[in-house]
């Protein structure tokens, strides 16, 4: 079965966003409160960037910047690559593996509809593999296995 990003991997997400003018501290607090590893950087309804835990580590902490005075615009990955809702889970995994991403915004036209993480994708594949194994076991060891009819 071909799994589309929306609705097979994500659907109905509440977008977690900051503005380019917000501080790195505000972005970090939002990530902690929501227990997420990335936030969208939005100018109104337009996606302008993404901030991840890696960005916080390498661009704020390791660089010795003050999170209270550093803006999200200074640390975000501007113009991030995106996925479309109709892209497949395997397309997303391939892009993430090739470009070393763990999160990708999902965009239709100019509208952000969600964020997919590598964890979301692995959960889909784990479920798919478990179902496949269950089906194979049922076929191989079905109810009539071992009975002499």
> How many angstroms separate the termini?
35 Å
Radius of gyration: 20 Å
Strand order of the largest sheet: 1-2-3-4
Give the CATH level 1 class of the largest domain: Alpha Beta
Summarize the biggest pleated sheet: 4 strands, mixed
Second CATH tier, the architecture of the largest domain: Roll
Number of helices: 6
**What fold name stands as the CATH topology of the largest domain?**
CBS-domain
The residue-averaged pLDDT reads 90
* Quaternary structure classification: single chain
**Unreliable sequence segments:** none
Total of domains: 2
Can you count the beta strands? 6
Strand content: 15-25%
Percent helix: 40-55%
Give the structural class: alpha+beta
* H-E string: HEHEEHHEHEEH
Task: Say which CATH homologous superfamily of the largest domain is assigned.
Answer: CBS-domain
| Shape estimate | elongated
Describe it for me?
The model has no long low-confidence stretch (mean pLDDT 90). Helices cover 42% and strands 20% of the residues. The protein is elongated and about 65 Å long. The protein folds into two domains: 16-80, Roll (CBS-domain), CATH 3.10.580; 81-149, CBS-domain (Roll), CATH 3.10.580. Strands 1-2-3-4 form a four-stranded mixed β-sheet. Strands 5-6 form a two-stranded antiparallel ribbon. It has 149 residues and is an alpha+beta fold. The chain contains six helices and six strands; from the N terminus they run αβαββααβαββα. It has helices at residues 5-9, 24-34, 53-61, 72-75, 89-99, 118-140; strands at residues 17-18, 38-43, 46-52, 77-78, 103-108, 111-117.
């Amino acid at each position: 079965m071909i799994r589309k990003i929306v609705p097979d991997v994500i659907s109905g997400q509440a977008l977690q966003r900051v503005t380019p003018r917000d501080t790195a501290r505000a972005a970090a607090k939002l990530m902690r409160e929501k227990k997420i590893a990335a936030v969208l950087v939005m100018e109104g309804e337009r996606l302008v960037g993404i901030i991840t835990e890696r960005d916080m580590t390498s661009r704020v902490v390791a660089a010795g910047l003050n999170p209270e005075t550093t803006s999200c615009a200074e640390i975000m990955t501007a113009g991030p690559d995106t996925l479309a809702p109709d892209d497949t889970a395997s397309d997303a995994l391939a892009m993430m593996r090739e470009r070393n991403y763990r999160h990708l915004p999902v965009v239709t036209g100019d509208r952000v509809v969600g964020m997919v993480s590598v964890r979301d994708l692995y959960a889909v594949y784990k479920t798919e593999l478990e179902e496949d194994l269950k089906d194979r076991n049922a076929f191989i060891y079905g109810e009539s296995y071992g009975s002499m009819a």
